[in-house]
Write the structure tokens for this entry.
Amino acid sequence: MELRICHLYPDLLNLYGDRGNVTVLVRRAEWRGIDVRLVEAGLGDPVDPEGSDLFFMGGGEDRQQRLAAPDLRNVKGPALSDAAEAGAAVLAVCGGYQLLGHYYRPSEGPDLEGLGLLDLHTVHPGPGSRRLIGNVVLREAAGGRMLVGFENHGGRTHLGTGVRPLGSVVAGWGNNGEDRTEGAVRGSVYGTYLHGPLLPKNPWLADLLIAAALRRRYGAAELSDLPDREEERAARAAALRAGVRGGAR
Amino acid sequence: MRDLVAIAAGRLAATASRALRAGGGTTVPGRIATAVAPGLISTLSARLARGVVLVSGTNGKTTTARLLGGILDSAGLVSIHNRAGANLLSGVASALVESSTLLGRPRGDMGLFEVDEATLPAVVEATRPRVVVLLNLFRDQLDRYGEIDLVADRWRRALSAMPREATLVFNADDPLVTDVSRGYAGPMLSFGIEEAPDRADPTPGLEAAADARYCYRCGRPYDYSLVLLGHMGHYSCARCGTARPRPEVGAREVRLRGAEGGSASVAWEGETMEVSSALPGLYNVYDATAAAAAALALGIPPATIVRGIAATAPAFGRGERVTVEGREAVFLLAKNPAGFNEVLRTVLYAEDAPVVLIAINDLTADGRDISWLWDVEFELLSGRARAVVVTGTRGEDMALRLKYAGVEAGRVTLEHDLARAISRAGEAAREGERFYVLPTYTAMLELRAVLARAGIVRGFWRQ
């Protein structure tokens, strides 16, 4: 069995430790004796929709996002959409999350047209507006599990009817600081503002993505349990830092 | 009159703050004094006969200012210096107030201030500096400063407010700093490292932490003929021709001696200074080269510069060595990925199987977001570190990072109590062996407070 991961724009969209997510996916597969094939696709590189089953895209500053947006639409977009339609897992964080929507309207300059893979749009309310920064605790919409992380974004994301939120905000800002939603999910395409090391402290989400990717290629996937003592301890400590005692479980 | 009242009030506050053990009194006096007289920094700065030097950058402010202070000492100049790293306007004001007579005369020839990156425009306006040193711009605490390009914009604003005759000393090896310097119309002096350092491990490729890989003019990835530290190195853009300028003050023959320090030959206008320093790591070679360049801009002779650098001891927490119960602890402040990677290399160059204490806090001064731990190459410790003790408000995150870095669980100990964490690390070190303390900023202050209570180090404000 082989887990095939494609890391999109690894050196361009890696604002804050985002590659830690890939480290976690690789390790958790290896620990279970699953082989891993990791390919990277930078600016200009095409994507093979059949070749990879799990796509990851991190975040960037406005400058990097502006470089990535046209490439995502024109070079990688159709293949990525095809893969997602065929059941591949996608995780996009922060700036990458915004680019999966219909458009991102920055505080200055023209709109960045997104891929439209997720039914949402993002608007930055202007240079003087408050950035949404801090520790976050979510209750996952589907299974009620806890998600912890850190967010730091100027843009406000509004979900359309074609997606469900990843979770509801227990502590922190979420998509827009108003409707208590965070992230967006459609099928096995996930977007979230929880940047940097999202998967280390939320290993169940990592496993969910790995399982989805393996199912696409092999039809079924049973993942063995891993001892997640350090993961759970760090998640509890992070929830406590966010002011949530005992977690949201 | 208002200025005099302000100075008196500020100095009283400093004395009171120390007597009450409320802290080092490094910012309160300045806050009080400038509240009474807002123009006080400008008034006192203007009375400094030899002017003001400002040092800013993500990494190395404190050490560079300290090295420059050592050079000024060697030159017989008395500098007023915000030594304790209080690098906001209040810290600059405090240093000035405390070193001035009650009649408002500064007791010094020069002002030497390290300045927080985001505060640079305000301090430039208030002090009208003679020299400004821009060291580097790394990703650091995005939750506090915003994106790195926004900091660069602040620096551009600071440069436009500089007095026309002021000299800009900048790092030619940092593409973003060099890009910022292009907007300056006054005199400039660039510094950089000309060759790969001589050390056991090969020069690394561009790290995960690199910040400025894409050309600031046209967006194409830079080509690097030499990567020195993070995104600093010998870069060029094949599309638009933007390239690292040849530094006017350039370090060659860089030799690193682990925790013992390093040396380099620093060339300027055909002269060569053989610089040797007790400060460890490639960072400090940059800092020493920057300090030498700033001193040259002030007209200080090369021989004096060499003497001053050799005489400078590490700043607190930055290569400082402290003996704890028969073991020597080396403090290496590590507050962002690029700095941390260099610190890890320094440790691994010095020891085959090091004992390391890592203290990660997420307080405001550290940055509340600890995502950056995943950009640090802790994989370097896998199979090498004999014991790693982790502590701090984010000790759990650090332990988790080590797990995914492949460091064996049996070698990692989580201990939240700082005094016990130090003891654990000391116990893991063998008789006469060193251990290494790698703290974030506030963790470093807390660890020092623990050691100070044990009578091992003095309060940092006395240095």
About this structure: Chain A touches chain B through 37 residues (CB under 8 Å). Residues 211 and 222 of chain A are 7 Å apart (CA to CA). The radius of gyration of chain A is 17 Å. Helices of chain A lie at 19-30, 62-85, 95-100, 198-201, 203-218, 229-241.
